[in-house]
Amino acid sequence: MAKQQDKFKHVISHAKEYGYVFQSSEIYDGLSAVYDYAQNGVELKKNIREYWWKAMVQMNENIVGLDSAIFMHPTVWKASGHVDAFSDPLIDNKDSKKRYRADVLVEDYVLKLDTKIEKEVKKAAKRFGDAFNKSEFISTNPRVLGYKEKGDAILKRLGQSLEKEDLADVKALIEELEIACPLSGSRNWTDVKQFNLMFGTKLGASAETAMDLYLRPETAQGIFVNFLNVQKSGRMKIPFGIAQTGKAFRNEIVARQFIFRMREFEQMEMQFFIKPGTQKEWYEHWKEARMKWHLSLGMGEDNYRFYDHEKMAHYADAATDIEFRFPFGFKELEGIHSRTDFDLKAHEEHSGKKLQFFDHTENKSYVPYVLETSVGLDRMFLAVFSNSLQEEELENGTTRTVLKLPAVLAPTKAAILPLVKKDGLPEIARKIMDDLKWDFNVTYDEKDAVGRRYRRQDANGTPFCITVDHDTLNDDSVTIRHRDTMEQKRVKISELTTIIEQEVSMKTWLMKM
Q1: Own/partner pairs for 313-321, CB < 8 Å, 24+ apart?
Q2: Cβ–Cβ contacts within 10 Å for residue 103, how many?
Q3: Residue 403 lies in a domain
Q4: What mean pLDDT value characterizes the chain?
Q5: Which of 32, 46, 326, 388 is deepest in the core (most CB within 10 A)?
Q6: What is the mean pLDDT of residues 250-268?
Q7: Is residue 392 part of a domain?
Q8: How many Cβ atoms sit within 10 Å of the Cβ of residue 75?
């Protein structure tokens, strides 16, 4: 656990040092759980968003985009259930005066059981060597099975208690597990209470006439209220999807773990409208499709897993999370939900307008069912960044810090380095940069010895370094160095665009799906 905490601290400090993420309003001591994306962070975030958009919208002829407003009519949130049901279970520690999400305390306890399982697997792998069968060990080892059975039973009970809103049993579970306050070690807990997560605001010129509004806690409702507009204007036929990326806001009880849980965050959602009765097959389809998208980035199959929900949201008849192995353990990265027809029917009821699809093949109208995929862009950023940050021991006994970002997502694709700041080398380097920047985000670096520049670009996540030297004056060739392997190769200047394109093209990466 200490090692995980050290790794996470390293992730946070590296993100600041190399211009990825800053604390918001830092000169005023910051604002809790609010962050700014810096010069490199905004590029990485943009590239993740575009990678999702290309896979979700551009590559699917029956999925279109939308950008709905953050402010919506307040009845939207009454219809969706957010006014009455959008809350988290809150618990306070009487000694430390700290507030926690009760469900997260229990989930963190189960996470420690997962850590114990991983330790057992590592010990066995070391003991048995090449003969070790991981899947067989996990399915047969009594100690591992015991940990897993205990964890599953705890999560099942938690889910059932939350489903029934039996908050007294949630507290009883915390007490039975002897869960202590992470800060004080005290087990002196208050009762569990529900806490609504929506931010309220007002719209109007004066306090007397202003309308009470909410900052949207999710982007999905903007899609649902525009369902018929998109369907009719685009002449869309069932099944079809509407995708959207955008900001959402939640007054989190305990916003923590850097950008994993923030009060202002960005979602990438797609609502897929389907014929009632087909939700099971589409649920399986999108589970497979979304996992393939994640795996296409090459961050390791072992770092992902599905987690099926015991406690369903009020709108769902099936729900699973794609969880990722963050530095603090497996946590939700993307949700896939079968939302039934809850949302459209609720908006029909509250608006008095029909939100139905006329099926010409069956000659009847019906309210479509919805299959949702929703991934947190900020969590995706953290998954990519934390997984990519590595410390490597080199053959000469030194170490290097390298940010092995998937090249397709890297903020800067190449750094152009003149070997020295004279003899016409900077002029050639500048010309190469001017040519490449039409197709790629590139940078120019002439400060320090070339070895130090390599290390700087490694830590910044730049896939390629292109060095202009004195031989370039005669043969129009440069040395291109690959970040991950540190391999250096002499190539013609005219070949650079093709070489870089092969490594960073979204088409190349998405075709792995």
Answers
A1: 313/337, 314/81, 314/85, 314/342, 315/81, 315/339, 315/340, 315/342, 315/343, 316/340, 317/279, 318/279, 318/280, 318/283, 320/287
A2: 21
A3: no
A4: 93
A5: 326
A6: 87
A7: no
A8: 12
Distances (CA, A) of 289 to 63, 121, 144, 146: 14, 29, 31, 33
**212 has a pLDDT exceeding 70:** yes
Place of tokens 């792998």: 125
* Average confidence (pLDDT) over 8-20: 96
Each residue of 65-100: pLDDT tens digit? 999 999 999 999 999 988 877 778 989 999 998 888
Give the residue from 18, 14, 21 showing the smallest Cα distance to 259.
Answer: 21
> The tokens of 271 are what?
């609502």
pLDDT tens-digit profile of 114-157?
Answer: 889 989 998 998 888 888 898 889 989 999 999 999 999 999 99
Contact (CB, 8 A) for 407 and 51? no
Q: Is the pLDDT of residue 187 over 80?
A: yes
Say if residues 463 and 504 touch (Cβ distance below 8 Å).
Answer: yes
Same domain, 102 and 81: no
Q: Exposure pattern of 122-146 as b/e (b: 16+ CB <10 Å)?
A: eebeeeeeeeeeeeeeeeebeebee
Residues 82 and 204 in one domain: yes
Mean pLDDT of 415-432: 95
CATH of the domain at 464: 3.40.50.800
Domain that holds residue 68: 2-86+197-386
SS3 of 16-48: the string is: HHCCCEEECCHHHCCCCCCEEECHHHHHHHHHH
Q: Are 105 and 239 contained in the same domain?
A: no
Percentage, residues of the chain above pLDDT 90: 77
Domain boundary among 351, 386, 421: 386
pTM, two decimals, is 0.85
pLDDT at 255: 64
Q: Is residue 303 part of a domain?
A: yes
Helix count and strand count (H, E) for the chain: 18, 23
CA separation for the pair 470, 477 (Å, rounded)? 10
Query: What is the chain's alpha carbon radius of gyration, rounded to the nearest angstrom?
Result: 26
Bridge partners of residue 340, in order along the sequence: 370
Rounded to whole angstroms, the Cα distance separating 221 from 203 reads 19
Question: Nearest-CA neighbor of 491 among 503, 499, 501, 502?
Answer: 499
Please give the distance of CA 266 from its chain centroid, rounded to a whole number.
9
- Give yes or no: residues 233 and 311 share one domain: yes
In a domain, 394, yes or no: no
Residues 292 and 329 in one domain: yes
> In this structure, are 202 and 189 located in the same domain?
no
Do 186 and 40 reside in the same domain of the chain? no
Q: What pLDDT, on the 0 to 100 scale, is given for residue 1?
A: 56
